[in-house]
């Protein structure tokens, strides 16, 4: 979001997700317990990126 200068409200409007949902996803330090494919797809489309740009995998 920072790289694309998009605020939470703007991203919510573009994706159709609730602003609280986006805020919660931004606040996670670890992978959220549940992130469905459609939400990830909406975020990637809106931010013009790939899932790997949004997620970081760290093995236990």
TrEMBL record:
**What domain of life is recorded for the organism?**
Bacteria
- Which CDD domains does the record associate with it? HTH_XRE
Residues forming the HTH cro/C1-type domain are 10-54
One of the record's GO molecular function terms = DNA binding
Q: Which UniProt keywords apply?
A: Plasmid
Q: Which InterPro entries match?
A: Cro/C1-type_HTH, Lambda_DNA-bd_dom_sf
Matching entries from PROSITE patterns are given as: HTH_CROC1
Q: Which SUPFAM superfamilies match?
A: lambda repressor-like DNA-binding domains (SSF47413)
State the name under which the record lists this protein: Putative transcriptional regulator
- Which species is this record about? Nostoc flagelliforme CCNUN1
């Amino acid at each position: 979001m920072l790289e694309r200068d998009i605020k939470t409200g703007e991203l919510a409007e573009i994706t159709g997700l609730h602003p609280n949902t986006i805020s919660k996803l931004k606040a996670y330090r670890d992978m959220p317990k549940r992130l469905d494919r459609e939400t990830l797809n909406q975020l990637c489309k809106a931010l013009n990126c790939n899932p790997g740009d949004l997620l970081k995998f760290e093995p236990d």
